[in-house]
Amino acid sequence: MSDLAERHAVVTGGYKGIGAAIAARLAARGARVSVLARDGAAAAVFAQGLPAAQGVACDVTDPAAVVRAFDQARAGFGSISILVANAGGTVARPIEEETPEGFRAALDLNLTGVFACLKAALPDMRTAGWGRAVVVASTAGLKAYPGVAAYVAAKHGAVGLVRAAALETAGSGVTVNAVCPGYTETDLAAQAVEALSAKGLSAEEARAKLARTNPMRRLIAPEEVADAVDWLTGPGATAITGQAIAVAGGEVMG
Length: 254
Hints:
Elements: E1 8-12, H1 17-28, E2 32-37, H2 40-47, E3 53-57, H3 63-77, E4 82-85, H4 100-128, E5 131-136, H5 149-169, E6 174-181, H6 187-197, H7 203-211, H8 222-232, E7 244-247
Parallel strand pairs: 1-2, 1-4, 2-3, 4-5, 5-6, 6-7
């Protein structure tokens, strides 16, 4: 497939887990892929394994660093056609134990970072009259989980930001959507297993507990999230914008 030939895709948090699966999928469709990550060296190593890709260091919590990174990405592959804002993460703390600094850090990574990336990429898409922006949010953007209030708040904000951006770009040839994975085979799920294990569960029991949140009784594979992004950036989704699509085996409906 080469339907994305000459398109430049930027994927944040793009060298492992969900981001790596998405970057590989877009590259397989012919896109030139800029893999952005805090660890620029790791991003560059991963990019070497893709047909046409480059690694760029980027801390999405620093708006100035985002501008610099997107400029560097353009210098290599031209104007940006596709943005996948995937960078994110969480630290599990109940509200009483959360600190103002920790809460702000969660917002900076999972919400303000998405804003900075959209702000950097959307002008290119408007100018071209074609663009696809996909935010990798979470089922935590559609429902609540205990013990991760800052993450839940940030992901709900990210879904709201997607909907606002979709309305602002409607009719311009640009679509903006979110995909919302449930517990997925990533470092984040591994951290959740560790947190549950610290409370007395075995690793096997902890994984089973996470899997039970999914009616299919399993964790989501990163490639399944990539499937959703694949569709949203493809020719069959031109009328789809402002949506938050759960990839969670039926955990969230409606």
